[in-house]
Amino acid sequence: MSAFHKWYNARLAARPMLTHCVTTGLLFGTGDVVAQTLSPDPTLNGRYDYIRTARMCFHGGVVFAPVVSQWYKLISSRIIIPGRPMLEAFARMAVDQTVWAPVGLASFYVSMGVLQLHSWEQIKEELRTKWWRTMIGNYAVWPAVQFVNFRMVPLDYRLMFVNIVSIGWNAFLSWFSATSIEQSIETIEKAEHKLEELEAKIEKRL
User: Fold this and answer.
1) Rounded to a whole number, what is the distance in angstroms from the first to the last CA of the chain?
2) Residue 100: CB partners within 8 Å, gap ≥ 6?
3) What pLDDT, in 10s, does the model give residues 86-128?
4) What is the spatial distance between Cα 50 and Cα 97, in angstroms, rounded to a whole number?
5) What domain count does the chain have?
6) DSSP string of 4-17?
7) In degrees, to the nearest 5, what angle opens at C-alpha 172 toward C-alphas 171 and 178?
8) Domain extent for 151
9) How does pLDDT run across 193-202, given as a tens digit for each residue?
């Protein structure tokens, strides 16, 4: 870990944007690998979709990383509350989640649609059916993560921190964007039903 830390610091010092883009692209791709491993696309008959992983890598490295790295610099320089570190972190998190989160999720669906050569009508339908449901999931996860990020993580490491946490989140995004809304809802409902059954069994044993 110490060797990686030294290597990463050296790369950040030499080529900060390139380092952010490469590491983010790789970790976005990792999220898709997790998604395809845990929930393979039945239409592929057991084959792995390498192009889907490439799309995730492209979005992470070319779209997400450059924008978010500059976004974190902007809010860190503009939102400063001297002597109130907790309030400062909360304010940064609130701005991030009300301004960037909706735009970032919309850009994900637009990016995936463009890379799949979908028509603008198809992309708008994807946004209409999936964007808000994804936002609900976002607010269940990211406010707490981003509060910790802005409160405890140095600026140069904030994107990496988000990328590591995002492996699971990106797995969900990749799976959700690659399936129809009907399939997604059906899978989520089945998972919720299994969770309810598990909770009922635990309550009986207690």
Assistant:
1) 42
2) 68, 71
3) 999 999 999 999 999 999 999 999 999 999 999 999 999 989 9
4) 31
5) 1
6) HHHHHHHHHHH-HH
7) 90
8) 2-205
9) 555 666 566 5
